[in-house]
Amino acid sequence: MLKKMFLVILLLLFCQGFVYATKLPTRISYITIPVVTPAQSWQVSAQLRVPRNSDSAIPAVVILHSSAGVDSTGAFYARALNHSGIATLELDLWGARDLAGGSENRPESPQETLPDVFAALAYLAQHPNIDKDRIGVIGFSWGGILSMLTATEQYMSMTGLPYRFAGHVAHYPLCWLFNFAPGFEFDNFTGAPVLIQTGAKDDYDLPETCPALVDNLSEHDQSFVKVKVYKRAFHAWDRLEPKWIVDDPFSHLGQGGLVTLAPNIRVAYKSRYRVIKFFTGLFNLQKSKYNEHDNNE
């Protein structure tokens, strides 16, 4: 009897260890990346997550937060990307600037944070475990704008480096700015595909601005960009913290006003499913069972 109990205990310990190991398939590092411009230099902090189950160079995705700063959103996507065999590098754009985030405590324009994104791309492209030709980017709100800007040669040619992102995802990126405000030209693409996801209840922007932006592109440029609009989604539907009302001067077509940030768990899983499908297809990776779970939520 005691022998049987001992065997059961050993089996339970083994199973617990196995489950723990399978839940932690990723090596996590906290790093700083030097950012150098003609005017100044600084260090941008980042979390690097590299799946452990590969001996060859693997693809990677840079994760760019919203005006709120680093929150649950990035980790929500990082876990699924890692589980699909993709490394992630999530930047903290505010930390190096000693900013708290939010509409009153961020840089004046997204373009000011482009050097951080360029530095992140260069860092990954030179990393021994990363395939430099399979590096993507996903951004949310502010970060979504950066993801779209880096899809254009207008900005990528400024780096003076040969590296380009292989694919771009932008969530709720204020499409009204593009091809309207100076410095937000959305054309002359690098040739990498772009996926834009937005919500029909997003009162930061209008639900029709992203589809209209793509419709007004040339037929050639339209071939690079796809848009998905979720009917029941507010701004930041995949930010899983409680609902939050903010006042932002960029909202309501630049007139300013209140914006609802409201999580929608079902839409969050659906949008994550599309993100993983986009990148695994782009990087020629096998379909992940983890992602099929997202699609069934």
Description:
With 297 residues, this protein is an alpha/beta fold. The protein has a single domain (31-295), classed as Rossmann fold, CATH 3.40.50. The protein is 33% helix and 25% strand. The protein has helices at 2-23, 72-83, 114-125, 142-149, 153-156, 209-215, 219-222, 251-254, 265-282, 289-295; strands at 26-36, 41-51, 58-64, 87-92, 130-140, 167-171, 194-199, 225-230, 244-248, 257-261. An eight-stranded mixed β-sheet has the order 1-2-4-3-5-6-7-8, with helices on both faces. Strand 1 (26-36) and strand 2 form a beta hairpin. Helix 2 crosses helix 9 (265-282) and helix 9 runs antiparallel to helix 10. It is globular, with a radius of gyration of 20 Å. Keywords: Hydrolase. InterPro entries: AB_hydrolase_fold, Dienelactn_hydro, FrsA_esterase, Pept_S9_AS. GO terms for molecular function: carboxylic ester hydrolase activity; serine-type endopeptidase activity. Residues 53-239 form the Dienelactone hydrolase domain. Pfam families: DLH.
Main traits of this protein?
297 residues, disordered N terminus, eight-stranded mixed β-sheet, 33% helix, hydrolase, alpha/beta, Rossmann fold, 25% strand, Dienelactn_hydro
Secondary structure layout plus pairing:
Layout: H1 2-23, E1 26-36, E2 41-51, E3 58-64, H2 72-83, E4 87-92, H3 114-125, E5 130-140, H4 142-149, H5 153-156, E6 167-171, E7 194-199, H6 209-215, H7 219-222, E8 225-230, E9 244-248, H8 251-254, E10 257-261, H9 265-282, H10 289-295
Parallel strand pairs: 3-4, 3-5, 5-6, 6-7, 7-8
Antiparallel strand pairs: 1-2, 2-4, 9-10
Helix pairs in contact: 2-9, 9-10
